Every structure is written in C-alpha cells, then in structure tokens.
Amino acid sequence: MESLPLGALLFILILCLLASAFFSAAETAMMSLNRYKLKHLVDEGNIAAKRVARLLRKTDRLLATILLGNNFVNILATSIGTMIGLRLLGDLGVLLATVILTVMILLFSEISPKTLAALYPEQIALPVARAMQSIVWFFSPMVWLLNKLVAAIFKPFGIDANHKKEDTLSTEELKTVVLSSSTSTNSPERQDMILGILELEDMSVDEAMVPRNELEGIDLNDNWDEIITQITNSRHGRLVAYRDNIDQVLGMLHLRDVIGLYHQNRLQPEALLEILRPCVFVPEGTPLRRQLLNFQMQRTRSGLVIDEYGDIQGLITLEDILIHIVGNIASESEEEEVPEIIKRQAQIFDVDGGISLRSLNRELGLKLPLDGPNTLSGLIIERLGTFPETGTELHFSDCIVRVKQFAEGVVSEAEVEVLPPQNTDDDES
User: Which domain holds residue 288?
Assistant: First the structure.
C-alpha cells in the first residue's frame, strides 16, 4: 500500500469514512425504528421492511457485524491517514493525522450520521437493509467465530453469553409510558382509557360492584301493587328478585322481559317467575380483567358477587367494568347530578364517602392505601377502629380527611385537604 499514489490513498480514506458513516447510520436507524410501524409495513407487504424485520430477529448478529465492519474501516482509515501524514510531514504528520482523523471520524462518521438516523430512522433503515443483509452474510463466519470466543471467555465465570433475558414491562412501567407519552398523539381522554384498561389487572370486582346496601331488588313476597310500583320507578334495567332477604335470591329480572309480558297482557305474579333469568355468581376478589372475559364466555352482562360463605356482597355488571375503562368520559353526564368530588377551595374538596380510593387517588393525585377497604368511608372506619363522629380528622402523608356526615354506619361525606409535597415516610400520624 506504500507504493500507492497519494491520490489513491486519499480516495481510500474517504471511502473508509463513508463506510464508517454507513455503519453508524444503519445501526442507529435500525435500533431506533418503531417496531409497531415496522410490523405495519411488513403486514402491508413492504419488501424493505421485511428485510429489516429479518435482520432485527437476530439483533446480536446484526450488531456484531456492524461493530466488526465499523472497527475494520476505522482502523483502515487510521492506518491510511498515518501513511499520508508520514509522506507529507514526516513524524509530525503522524501526530497531525491522529488529531485530524479523530475529529473527522467523530464528526462525519459518528455524530452526524447517528443524529440524522435518529431523526429519520425509517427513511434510512429501509434503503440500507438490502446492503446490510449482504454484509451480514459476508461477515457471518467471522461473527460466528467471535461469538464462540466470547462464549469461551465467559464460560469459566458461569455466564451464558447466549442467554437472552426476556425484557417485559410491568403494569406500573406501562402506566409510566402512557403518562409520559406525547400529548399530541395521546389526548387526556385516551390516556385515561388506556390507564383504565391497565388497572383492570389490579382491580377486583369488589371495587367496581354496586355494594349490597345500594343494591336494588324486588321482594316477591311483597304485595303485587308494591312490586309494580317498584318496577315502574326503577332506574335500572336489571333487578335482583328474591324472597324475604336478598340472600334468598331467585333470579335476575330484566325490565324488557316485563315490558314483553305487559304487551301480552300477561303481567301477573306467576308470569313474573317464569321470566326470571338464572343468576351468575362471581367469587369475591375476582380480578376485573378475568370477570370481563367471563362475561364474554358466559354471554351474560351481570353477576352477583358472593363471599366465601355464599352471602351476596353486591352486583357487578359489564357496564360497571366499561365505565371504569372509559373513566371520566362516561361520568361527565352524571357529574352534574351526583358529583363525587366538589372543589371548595384551592386544595380542599368535599368528597362522597362512597368514592373508590382508586378514583380518589387518580383525581386528586393522592397515595391512599389500596390494599384494604375499597372506599373512603371504609378506610376511615378501618383506620379509626370504630365509627367516627362528625369533625373527626385523619392525617395521611399527602392529605387530611375530615368526616362531615356519618349515618347508619357509613361516612356519607368527607372533606379532603390535599397537602403540599413533603419528604416523609409516615402514612399516618
């Protein structure tokens, strides 16, 4: 190579710098490529996208090839630069060549191509995929040999170089991704819906059901006029039918079936029993995600939640689960009638005691414990160990809760004062 003319050496040097820029851009573009967008292009039949997908299936081989190729051309460029420096300036040329080449490689072969590839990964990754396939094939014997050498080096230390750890995201990590995503692509409503879906894994039917004390049902032992009045005034499409007490349930009464009887002039107590539908019983603590699938498989829309003794604890419906998923979107129309949270001052809110702790945490940015009672009323009573009096205060790390109304064993209204952030590990004082 020493016999080559200076012009030829400069030409080879430029080719090496361009090749280094190619490897740098290809690596960054393929690693930055949106995998979902790539899958969409593959599904559409894009040939270049299919090539990229094949390369990314064996990322270790791709990266090893790029590393090998990049190091080869960089070392070659350094050698040629040193030869040019020696010819032009002697020993001083070696020092100048080292400095100049370092700057040129960093600027034109590393920083610039990688920055460009990070900005436009799709526009760069797809066109270079064909060339990269050929390069990977060409270097594959050497890459295979290097991988074997690496495995041999790690083996005495008990490290398996070929073991690939499956990197999955937890629910909390997925929530962080959703919350940190760009608002230009994810509206607040869409974020709430995605968060609602993610929370289905952590929530049980106990948190979404209509509790027993609020359950609307019909005692078929009542006189007929009272039953008709109750059906007429009902705000729900399904009612629990029972005798004497709700634990003696007979079935679910669908109001549309009652309307059918009315149009047939058959609305009588005996006919009412005929149209009762069997109840689906749901064990207490069933995750909402599992119950959603159960509703789908059983082709039903409601179930009675029972405890370990078979006592009815509440009613869970498909609508209850869907309302949780769509969150604030579904509750806007109801908020004017029965708002669960009313802002009184800057950081002081009147809160319905029956609100779920999960909803309260989400709306006010609190960290009230979720491993016990499901409602604010339940949390207050559990923490006090007795029924509270009006004005009773509970102090948590991020808020103060004051009881405003208590009746019939339930806190119906409370005041929540949100405290400014502070460094403390105490949950309650």
Answer: 205-326
